[in-house]
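quick one before i forget lol
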Amino acid sequence: MGTGTGTARPTSDVSGAVGFVGLAALVLWLLVCRNWASLAPALGIPGPRAPLSGPYAALATLFVTGCAMSLYSLLVDKVHRNPSTGIDWNSRRPLAETFDISVTKLAGLWGTWVGIGLFYCMGRWYWDGQYLFAMEVIGAAAVPLFALSVPYVLWLDRVLTQPRDASWHFGAMLLGREAWDGEQVKKHWRAWAIKGFFGAFMISILPGGFGAVVEADLGTLGRDPVAIGSLLIQLLFLIDVQIGTVGYIFTFRPLDAHIRSGNPYLAGWVAALMCYPPFVWGTIGRADVLGYEVNTGGWAHWLGGDVSLAWLWVAMMVFLTAVYAWATFAFGLRFSNLTYRGVLTNGPYRFTRHPAYLSKNLFWWISTLPFLVTNGSLTDMVRNTVLLAVVSGIYFWRAKTEERHLLGEDPKYVEYHAWMARNAVITRSFVALWARFAPRPPRFEDTAQPAE
């Protein structure tokens, strides 16, 4: 295990190029969608002569991007040869030898999908608003998914070094024919709970920003910093959503993108789930429990009258959003919450362990300006500022729970964690600040009781 005493940054398990391949494919497809009205006649394709800005064009973008990254990963990075896949391509066993294993695993997978489907049925929020699109997509994919899982599992189990994985253990529990390991069953459900919960959310938000970017009229932007900044930020958030969603769907072992473990700590789940629907900062049915934008005008309201200052603010917000998007597509095919899928040490992760959380929170502070309110209320001013500070604190808590998970999974992350504390300017500064103000563990002499 690395001790963190070396001078070189640990190598990344994720190629530095694969995310940029996905970004290039995404931008190219966006240009196709924007110019479809002229491309379709030139290619002789029937149909509407208009930009492709609907929800299914957004869904198609997902697969264009994911397939581009998959091909690069296989053909250039050759990730299917990585030992971490758990695959030995040179030891293909006879189907008869692994057939019973595959049947058990399929029982586990199908039982899991049925359970996730029941969860969707019980959750009222899945049948309203933006989630309706996600339910439509998942419902349409259900039958093909069940059908294609059979040849996929039968094929993969023949080359897996350990085909009796966590999914197999859950299947064994359901069938009751063989001994199973409860810890493996928990591991299986943690991974699929992450995919089920966050996958539906990510699909649900695909169409929103996509349509706005594809249909944007660049001729009307002029030199308006508010309009230009808003469009650029929408584009960057679109990059984050599209490539992030790829990460939840393309979790295949031959791509070395499988979920190796889900976060086993309750605190990690609580911190993460507080940031997403249906929780969204509130645990008692109110979305404004931690609402920090009450009577705030936002940056455009306060700074829009000063063109020079507005451009400076736009530049800062676009930069922070670009870092946020980079922190997502740097993962390539491996992005998802609450998971360990290898160690990422390149891209923006050279400068801080949590570039997405840092840039996102700084963006909220400078875009909202919570300490400025339109009604002049000191109460609203203080409340907004304190509540946004609480939100930032939640993200700090979330980051620490993720570190705890990864430190227990991979010696490379232990080495990376220590290297960053010494060499990365941002992380080193936070570590020094934390050491100064965090309570120290009690020493033995502080806790020893006097003899009676």
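fyi The mean pLDDT is 91.
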